[in-house]
Design a protein that fits this description.
Length: 426
């Protein structure tokens, strides 16, 4: 039997979402095509897809409550590990935790990272990248400017020596380097001074003075000249911000491997200065560090550095996701690290028949008014899909999407039963 390609595509193009799924009482196909969690979906949708295993749900909520509302400000650290086979919903659970954390009254900064990288500086670089280049520059510049303006320091007086008159009054308030407009960034601030200096040598002296002040402030804050230099290059753009940004976020900068604790400390300082009371790092696919991507030496170095980071910086919470096998591999590589990663261990099992029904209902209700009906699926059809997919949510959701699409193609199909599943999946 030949396939009329043009008719299939033409019919589909002319069919609206509403018309296509209305016979099922749905507005759209709610199941993800790939079966994987969408890291860009709305917070409301993520929360709606709460864990279906009550034990897992309770454990993740306890982790959030115990870390978010811990009384100690100096020791906030709580490490959690989500384990489970591939496709059991570890990513969805991480995103669910992130949504809950961000919707609580206590202001918390939560970053989701879907790859731990091949070394620890890459992981730290990913955190900075998530904050964003312009935002990170703004945070750094605000830190510097606040120090320059503090009465106890001589920085402001040292810079005002280069002005034609105090506060730039000779040239109007718009040229005052300390006006709101000119304090916006390093370039505007520097330009406001330079406009009042005719001598090339004086301009060079000003530039060097400002650079020395910024480096001094950054080094004092971070207790490290290398980090101060990287941050200065970001603020000033002297050596090309794109190159500096890439160096930091990729973790490829010289000596950065020995600076991860101080880098994380700098990030947490910045985050807390924006009013956030807690800092969370949620890392997915953590099994990558044991999957053969790294040599034994690289794995050992990663494990050692992460252990040091966990021990030395206590103003953060870490929640990672990996397979159970990968956790066992880490236990072989570094028992002390494995012990630290499992303050809390949350294990996701494969789907039971009852859990499969709840999963289907949760997704169907994203595309209709809440209901207890499995329509258009029969209970037997759902059981069959769960069996065919090895009780793995990712594979089950992928097949459910496919089945609903094929049923929508046919005007005569209003119910997805065992017969329909057998015809399309086996």
């Amino acid at each position: 039997m030949s396939i009329d390609v043009n008719k299939i595509l033409k019919d589909r193009a002319q069919q609206s979402q509403k018309d296509r799924y209305s016979k099922f009482g749905l507005k759209s196909n709610p199941f993800p095509k790939s079966g994987t969690a969408n890291i860009n979906e709305s917070s409301d949708q993520t929360v709606a897809l709460a864990p279906i295993d009550e034990k897992v749900h309770k454990e993740i909520v306890n982790y959030i409550a115990d870390s978010l509302y811990a009384s100690s400000k100096k020791d906030q650290k709580l490490i959690g590990t989500i384990t489970g086979d591939y496709g059991t919903g570890k990513t969805q659970l991480l995103l669910y935790a992130k949504s809950i954390i961000q919707n609580e009254s206590k202001k918390a900064f939560a970053i989701y990272i879907n790859n731990p990288g091949t070394n620890l500086p890459q992981l730290i670089g990913s955190i900075i990248e998530k904050i964003g280049q312009e935002q990170f520059k703004k945070y750094l510049w605000t830190q510097v400017l606040d120090e320059i303006k503090k009465p106890k320091n001589t920085y402001k007086a040292d810079l005002e020596k280069f002005l034609a008159s105090p506060q730039g009054d000779m040239f109007g308030k718009s040229n005052d380097p300390f006006s709101i407009e000119n304090e916006a960034n390093h370039k505007a601030f520097l330009d406001a001074f330079i406009k009042q200096i005719n001598s090339r040598s004086k301009r060079a002296e000003l530039n060097n003075t400002l650079k020395h002040i910024i480096l001094s402030i950054l080094e004092e804050r971070n207790q490290d000249a290398v980090i101060a230099d990287y941050f200065y290059n970001l603020i000033s753009e002297d050596f090309g911000i794109s190159k500096t940004w890439e160096t930091i976020t990729s973790g490829s900068g010289k000596y950065l491997n020995n600076k991860v604790v101080k880098l994380l400390n700098a990030i947490i300082d910045i985050v807390q200065e924006q009013g956030f009371e807690r800092f969370y790092l949620l890392v997915d696919e953590f099994e990558d560090i044991t999957s053969g991507r790294l040599t034994k030496k690289e794995s050992d170095t990663y494990a050692y550095n992460l252990r040091a980071l966990i021990d030395k910086e206590r103003r953060w919470c870490l929640l990672i996701a990996l397979t159970r096998t990968a956790l066992e591999d880490i236990q072989k590589i570094s028992p002390p690290l494995a012990d630290r990663l499992t303050d809390r261990e949350i294990n996701i099992e494969r789907l039971s028949t009852a859990q499969m029904k709840i999963l289907v209902l949760n997704y169907l209700n994203l595309s209709r008014e809440n209901s207890d009906s499995l329509t258009p699926f029969t209970e037997e059809a759902i059981q069959m899909v769960n069996k065919i997919t090895g009780e793995l949510p990712r594979l089950a959701l992928r097949k459910l999407y496919f089945l609903l699409e094929r049923a929508a193609d046919s005007e005569s199909i209003n119910e997805i039963d065992v017969k329909f599943v057998e015809a399309n999946l086996q």
